[in-house]
Specification:
Number of domains: 1
Radius of gyration: 20 Å
Mean pLDDT: 89
Helix content: over 70%
Distance between the termini: 49 Å
Strand content: under 5%
Structural class: mainly alpha
Largest sheet: none
Low-confidence stretches: none
Number of strands: 0
Number of helices: 10
C-alpha cells in the first residue's frame, strides 16, 4: 500500500516567506491607522510647508527649505521608527498580541525583523513624499546619496531600538504618553526646526548628542553643505543604535 501525497502539506512556511508575510501585514496595519498617518506623514509635511513658506525662524543664509528639509526627514524617521513603533508595539503587548504571535512558528526575532522591515518600507514612502514636497518648494539637495542612506539606516536602528525598549518595559498608557512627550521635546530641541545655534553653548553640547540632533545635523551637512561623510554624527547614531537595540533585546518583556 503506497503512501499518498497530499496538498497542501501541513507545516510551517519557509522562514523568509513568513517574515515577508508578517512585514506586509505590519505595513498594512500601520498605513490603515489614521493616527499613525497623522504622526508619520501629515505632521512632517505640514511642518515642512509651513516653516518653508513663512519666515518664522531664522534658518541662516539661503532658502529656508534647504535647512528644513533634512530636519523634517530626520523627524519622519523618528516618528515612524520610535514614536509610532513604540505606541503600536506597546498596545500589542498589552492586548496579548505579541504573546500570541510568540507561540506561532514565526520566531520572536523574526517578528521583530518584520516590524523593522515594515518601518523601513514606511520610511521609503515618507522620504519619497517629503522629497517631492521639498522639490516643489525649491529645494536643491547636494552631497552623497550613500551618506544619506547610511544616516537614515543608522537613525532607524537607533530610534527603533529605543522605541522597542520603551514598548517592552512600560505599560501601554505610559508608553503612549512618554513617546508623544519625547516626540514633542525632540521636535523643539533636536535641531529639526530650530537651529541648535539658538541654544546656549552648554545646552547645545548636550543636545548635539541626541540621536535626532545627530541625524538632522548629519543630513544637513550632506544635503545642504555637500559634506562627504559626517563621521561624528554617524558615530553618535551607531552608539545609540547599539545601546537601544542591546537594551531592547535584554529587557523586552513579551507579556
Amino acid at each position: 500500500m503506497s503512501i499518498g501525497t497530499y496538498t497542501p502539506r501541513p507545516g510551517a512556511a519557509p522562514l523568509p516567506r513568513m517574515i515577508a508575510a508578517q512585514t506586509v501585514l505590519e505595513t498594512k496595519m500601520l498605513l490603515r491607522n489614521g493616527e499613525q498617518l497623522l504622526l508619520t506623514v501629515v505632521i512632517p509635511a505640514l511642518l515642512l510647508v509651513l516653516f518653508s513658506s513663512v519666515d518664522i525662524i531664522d534658518t541662516g543664509a539661503g532658502p529656508a527649505v534647504d535647512f528644513l528639509a533634512p530636519g523634517v526627514l530626520a523627524l519622519a524617521v523618528m516618528s515612524t521608527a520610535f514614536t509610532g513603533q513604540a505606541i503600536a508595539t506597546g498596545f500589542e503587548r498589552r492586548y496579548g498580541v505579541l504573546k500570541l504571535l510568540g507561540t506561532s512558528p514565526l520566531p520572536r526575532w523574526a517578528l521583530m525583523t518584520a516590524k523593522t522591515l515594515s518601518v523601513l518600507v514606511t520610511e521609503v514612502l515618507q522620504v519619497v513624499l517629503l522629497t517631492a514636497i521639498a522639490f516643489g518648494l525649491g529645494w536643491s539637495p547636494q552631497g552623497s546619496p550613500f551618506a544619506v542612506l547610511l544616516l537614515l539606516v543608522l537613525g532607524t536602528a537607533a530610534f527603533s531600538g529605543l522605541g522597542l525598549l520603551m514598548a517592552g518595559t512600560l505599560r501601554a498608557e505610559a508608553t503612549l504618553a512618554a513617546a508623544n512627550l519625547v516626540f514633542l521635546l525632540l521636535l523643539v530641541g533636536g535641531g529639526v526646526i530650530v537651529p541648535l545655534d539658538e541654544f546656549p553653548d552648554a545646552v547645545r553640547s548636550l543636545l548635539g548628542l541626541l540621536p535626532i540632533a545627530a541625524l538632522s545635523d548629519g543630513l544637513r551637512d550632506v544635503l545642504q553643505q555637500g559634506a562627504a561623510m559626517p563621521w561624528g554624527d554617524l558615530g553618535v547614531l551607531a552608539a545609540w543604535a547599539a545601546l537601544g537595540l542591546g537594551a531592547a533585546a535584554r529587557f523586552f518583556r513579551w507579556e
